[in-house]
Each structure stands twice: as structure tokens, then as C-alpha cells.
Specification:
This protein is α/β, with parallel strands linked by helices. The chain is 40% helix and 19% strand. The protein has a five-stranded parallel beta sheet with strand order 5-4-6-3-7, sandwiched between helices.
Length: 301
């Protein structure tokens, strides 16, 4: 890796005007890049990318589109979860030479649902600075456009793809008193919304944000039930952010009332369905109700 030398190699182009980036102190710079609209790049991000000795990126083809658009000449180094162990020492060697390294993801803010935290830990352990360069983020763009409470937010990233772990994860998050934010693949969004509606309730308020910052950006707002129906057909195009409002506060449920409801539900339903129904009625934990329903069923038999 050869570091840029001279002002010409630290230049960037913005609105057809060339600018020279100032020299950077040796550090790992975590640089946010646009999530769709290239106009969302910040001046500070361009100065950092132009002034770094190397840009570590997920895919050199994707980042190459960005560097070409803004006339950047900084060398690109592929850095992703499959080659991280090999490339991490090279990044540390660059820092040791007194040069700056910029880390980018394919889009948005690195480390958000991205494995780059290991590099940050190693850089910090080696005694070098880590400098965040804020910018675009699908998490933030989705949050501010969804129209859901934003005082308490829990970012859950991508859910497990397999049914059992996915269901358990949604159950774990369902009662947290916060707006929940998920990233999801367009080909799985319909099934995911259906599972969320089943576990969290069809009437829970939610929003699906798609193609954020791009030409066909959309915010579909409604309930989990209505959104599950809307996305039940062919997979939509573009990246997806699912946002779910906090659960409504359930009234305090009496254990005796819950047991009576279980007994009544078990007359017509299997154990699992009875536990799910009573959980929705009372707000009590579904797993606890399931265990009690098993005991009641065994006692009744």
C-alpha cells in the first residue's frame, strides 16, 4: 500500500470544483457513506477519504463507484468478514507508519449491523485513535420518517433466518418498552411481518421503510397485520427497514384470572394456542403460560 503524496493525490471533486484535503493524523477513520443518494456525502467524509493512505471497504467495485464520482485517487483495500484476519495486520502496519486509514461499508455507517467492531478493538488495543465521521444511516433515516415514538429505540439489526431462532428472538423483543428497528431482506419481509403480527399482535403500530434516500423511497405505515398482508405477495425491490411501535401497557393480570382463562381456552384449543391466546389477553409471558397450560392439561387428563 502506497500512501498518497502531494496535494494532487489528496484532491476530491464536488460540484465540478476540485478541493485539496488537509493532511490527516494517523488514526482509523470510520466514514459514513450514502445509503443511496450520493448527494448525501458530507464534506468531512470527502476530506477524510481523500486524505487517507488507504480506504478499507467491503467491495472495491461498490466503493469504486463512490470514489470515481468524487474524483478520489485513494487506493482501495478489500476488507470484509472473510478476509479480515488477513487484512487487519496490514491496516495496523499502515497506522504504525504514521498514516491514516479510512474504513467504509458498502453503504451507510460502518459497524452498524456490520462486523467491523473487531478492527476497532484491535486498533484501540494497539494504541491508535479511532475517529468517527458521521453521516447517512438507514436506521436513523427510517426512524425519523416512520412517525413512531423516538424517545426510546432498540436497534435489533437482522433477525435469524431460521424459523425457530427467529420466532424466539421476536418473542424476546416483543415486550420491550421501545420502538424496535430491524433490517430485513426484501425476499423475507412478508414472512417476517406475518410472524411479528402473530407474536406481537396484528394491531400493533408499525412502519416499513424501503429504498431510503433513493428515487422510489416509500414509508408504508399501518399495523403489523395490515403490513403483513400488504407484503404477502411478490418480494419488493430495495433494502428494508421495519419499525415497530412500543407495546401498549397491559393491565395488571391476576394469576387466578389467567389460570381461569387457560382452563377455558384448553377446552377448545391445543396447549400452544391456548397459551398464545391468554398471553395476548393478559400481557403475561407466553412461555410461563405454556408451562402452566401443560400442567393443567396433564391434571385434567
Amino acid at each position: 500500500m502506497n500512501s498518497p503524496t502531494g496535494a494532487d493525490q489528496r484532491r476530491y471533486i464536488l460540484s465540478q470544483h476540485a478541493f485539496s484535503a488537509p493532511p490527516l493524523e494517523p488514526a482509523l477513520y470510520i466514514v459514513s457513506t450514502p445509503i443511496g443518494n450520493l448527494g448525501d456525502i458530507t464534506v468531512r467524509a470527502l476530506e477524510t477519504l481523500a486524505g487517507a493512505a488507504v480506504i478499507a471497504c467491503e467491495d472495491t467495485r461498490v466503493t469504486g463507484t463512490l470514489t470515481h464520482r468524487f474524483g478520489l485517487k485513494t487506493p482501495l483495500m478489500p476488507y470484509h468478514e472473510h478476509n479480515a484476519d488477513k487484512q487487519r495486520p496490514k491496516i495496523l502496519e499502515t497506522l504504525e507508519r504514521g498514516e491514516a486509514v479510512a474504513l467504509v461499508s458498502d453503504a451507510g455507517t460502518p459497524l452498524i449491523s456490520d462486523p467491523g467492531y473487531r478492527l476497532v478493538r484491535d486498533v484501540v488495543a494497539a494504541g491508535y485513535k479511532v475517529v468517527p465521521i458521521p453521516g447517512a444511516s438507514a436506521l436513523l433515516a427510517g426512524m425519523v420518517g416512520a412517525g413512531l415514538p423516538s424517545d426510546t429505540v432498540l436497534f435489533a439489526g437482522f433477525l435469524p433466518q431460521k424459523g425457530g431462532p427467529k420466532t424466539r428472538r421476536i418473542e424476546e423483543l416483543a415486550k420491550i418498552p421501545a420502538t424496535l428497528v430491524f433490517y430485513e431482506s426484501p425476499r423475507r419481509v412478508g414472512a417476517t411481518l406475518a410472524t411479528m403480527a402473530e407474536i406481537m399482535g396484528e394491531t400493533r403500530e408499525a412502519c416499513v421503510a424501503r429504498e431510503l434516500t433513493k428515487r422510489f423511497e416509500t414509508f408504508e405505515r399501518g399495523t403489523l397485520g395490515s403490513l403483513a398482508e400488504l407484503f404477502s405477495g411478490d418480494a419488493p425491490k430495495g433494502e428494508i427497514v421495519i419499525l415497530i411501535a412500543p407495546p401498549e401497557e397491559a393491565p395488571e393480570a391476576d394469576a387466578g384470572d389467567a389460570e381461569a382463562l387457560l382452563v377455558e381456552a384448553l377446552k377448545d384449543m391445543p396447549v400452544s394456542a391456548a397459551a398464545k391466546t391468554v398471553a395476548k389477553q393478559t400481557g403475561l409471558d407466553r412461555n410461563d403460560l405454556y408451562k402452566r397450560a401443560l400442567e393443567l392439561k396433564a391434571g385434567g387428563d
